[in-house]
Amino acid sequence: MPQLNPNPWFLIMLMSWVTFSLIIQPKLLSFTSTNSPSKKTPMTTKTTPWTWPWT
Fold it and tell me: How far is it, in rounded angstroms, from Cα 6 to Cα 12?
C-alpha cells in the first residue's frame, strides 16, 4: 500500500512547513490590520428594569 510509505510524503510535508514558517508567515504578519484595536474604555449604559403591567 503506497499510502503507508512515508518516504516521499514526509519530505514534502516538511518542506511545505518550512516554506510556510520561514517565507510566507513573516510576509503575512508584516501587513498592518485595517482595524487596529483602540484603547477606548467600553461605554456602560444604564439599564432600567422593565415595568410589567400586571405586577
Answer: 10
| Residue pLDDT, tens place only, 6-28 | 777 888 999 999 988 888 888 88
CA distances to 5, 7, 22 from 10, in Å: 9, 6, 18
Cα 19 from Cα 25, distance rounded (Å): 9
Query: What does the block give as the cell for 22?
Result: 520561514
C-alpha cell read off for 5 = 510509505
Q: Is 28 left (phi over 0), alpha (psi -120 to 50) or beta?
A: alpha
